[in-house]
Amino acid sequence: MVRLITHNLLACHVKGCTTNNFPLVFQDAQVEIHEAEFNEDFIRGFMPKIEWKALVDSARQLGDTSLPEEQPEMADDDFLKTLHHVLLEMHIEEGAMVCQNCGHVYPISNGIPNMLLAEHEIG
Amino acid sequence: MLPTPDLSHLTKEDFIRVYEPAEDTFILLDGLENDAVELQNLDPKICLEIGSGSGCVSAFVGKLLGSSRCLYLTTDINPYASKCTVSTGKQNAVPIESITASLDSPLALRLRRNVDLLIFNPPYVPTSSEEADAAQESRGIGGSWAGGTDGMEITGLFLNNLPNLLSTNGRFYLVGVAVNNISAIHQNLRGLRLDGKVILHRRAGREHLYVMKFMRILTP
Question: What are phi and psi of B87, to 5 degrees?
Answer without folding.
Answer: -70, -35
